[in-house]
Write a structure and sequence with these properties.
The structure holds two protein chains of two kinds. By secondary structure, chain A is mainly alpha-helical. Chain A has helices spanning about 1-20, 25-45, 50-75, 80-85. Chain B folds into two domains: about 70-125; about 150-345, no CATH class. In chain B, about 65% of the residues lie in helices and about 0% in strands. Chain B has helices spanning about 10-20, 55-75, 90-120, 135-145, 150-160, 160-185, 190-205, 210-235, 245-260, 265, 270-300, 320-345. Classes of the chains: A mainly alpha, B mainly alpha.
């Protein structure tokens, strides 16, 4: 169990750094989403399941979706533009 | 017999209602954007200044702005005008270097401060931590008897500290109002109606409507998510969760449904009118109920609200209806955020 916690915390740090480092905005949002999911598991391990529910719904769900929509609005998702032209 | 008011059309109420219905715009003519007038005189080589057409004027303004931005940002902003010496280039390079160095130093300092604080925190769950004072003891010892909630996190949030939670709900509501003000596209006049139509066509291009995988997944998942959200809201005083978590889950379920099946399906049951009424009713009920219980509590009166047997679903007094109110407000806010970001309206 201790090892699992250390693994989770390490991947949390990796996610947090790579969100800032990654060039592509879409990728960084997906990493941010996985950060929220890892955080959600950590909340469960810290025995606060209500926070885990909120983190999963708000952090991984709604916030990332709002980021996606914003990226689409400012035409930062390249793939869609290519699909549209094709 | 009621008497008709003579100057009804000019009465204060009528004017207020007209303003509420959007018939008069108080800001009309106050906040319009004007293109700045040409200040420099017409070039002498072009002969006498004849009647300049508006297109010429606009082109000249564009040229002036281009020169201005070239001076500030260097020629790479306008690649087609690559001639001429960049004026601020060297200073800009120096600024960029200093900027990146300073940002790294700032990040390092913040990380160091946080780590330093974390090192000096008391151990997690220690017996003589400063958080272990008489307040949590009171909550733990007499929380069940005073609030009737088995999950005394909810008992704390919605009973001892219900005023904070009311503030949080209002903050959410105000945030959604701000998003509404910023992102709403008003489909009243002809120009913006055309824009809305264009946006919808655009939306259809981007959105894979009738996506089979998404629709099948949503067909299975959305009822489960909604039932789970309702369960969290209704069992807020018995099990982990409560209004905010359940409302967020409900909102995510609605967003998934909207993504899979499009706006036409959701507009059957969730329009802007529904949003406004549900939010207003929930916040008003919360405010009135909590005002009543604060009033009776502060004056040492009997509130007359039965606490019920702890552990039953209909127990713990006001907590269950308040949880439902908070859940409704949060659900509506999440959904409204998404629709406003998506198409600028509901």
């Amino acid at each position: 169990m201790k090892l699992f916690e250390i693994l989770l915390l390490l991947s949390l740090i990796v996610c947090a750094i790579s969100v800032a480092v990654v060039r592509d905005l879409l990728t960084s949002i997906i990493i941010f989403m996985s950060y929220s999911l890892i955080m959600c598991v950590i909340w469960v391990l810290l025995q606060s399941p209500d926070l885990a529910i909120t983190e999963a719904a708000v952090g991984a769900g709604v916030t990332s979706i709002l980021f996606f929509v914003t990226l689409k609005k400012i035409r930062a998702i390249r793939k869609e533009d290519q699909d549209e032209q094709a | 017999m009621s008497r008709l008011k003579e100057n009804y059309e000019n009465s204060r109420y009528r004017r207020f209602m007209r303003w509420m219905n959007g018939e008069v715009d108080l800001l009309d003519g106050v906040t319009d954007v004007r293109i700045p007038e040409e200040t420099e005189p017409a070039p002498a080589g072009h002969g006498a200044a004849g009647p300049v057409s508006s297109a010429d004027k606009r082109r000249a303004a564009l040229e002036a702005r281009r020169k201005e931005s070239e001076e500030i940002f260097g020629p790479e902003i306008w690649p087609q005008a690559a001639s001429g010496e960049p004026i601020f280039d060297r200073r800009l390079t120096v600024f960029r270097g200093v900027y990146s160095v300073m940002s790294v130093i700032l990040c390092a300092v913040i990380i160091w401060v946080f780590l330093w604080t974390t090192v000096h925190l008391p151990p997690f769950g220690g017996a003589d931590n400063p958080a272990n004072n008489e307040v949590p003891r009171r909550y733990i010892e007499s929380g069940l008897a005073e609030t009737g909630a088995v999950n005394f996190v909810t008992g704390m949030i919605l009973d001892y500290r219900a005023f904070d939670t009311f503030g949080e709900s209002c903050v959410l509501f105000i945030a959604s109002c701000c998003v509404l003000v910023l992102l709403r596209i008003d489909p009243v006049d002809e120009h913006s109606r055309a824009r809305v139509r264009k946006q919808q066509e655009n939306d259809r291009v981007f959105e894979p409507k009738n996506d089979v995988i998404l629709q099948k997944a949503a067909f299975i998942l959305v009822p489960l998510i909604l039932i789970f959200g309702i369960y969290i809201v209704l069992n807020g005083h018995l099990s982990p969760g409560g209004g905010f978590s359940g409302g967020a889950v409900l909102g995510s379920g609605l967003i998934l449904y909207l993504n899979a099946f499009g706006f036409q399906k959701t507009e059957r049951f969730f329009t802007e009118k529904v949003y406004r009424r549900v939010t207003l009713c929930a916040l008003t009920f919360y405010c009135l109920a909590k005002s009543y219980s604060f009033f009776t509590g502060a004056n040492h009166l009997e509130s007359g609200i039965p606490l019920g047997t702890p552990g039953a679903i209909l127990s713990s007094g006001l907590i269950l209806p308040l949880n439902i109110c908070v859940g409704l407000v949060v659900m509506c806010t999440m959904y409204a955020f998404y629709t406003l970001f998506r198409k600028g309206g509901m």
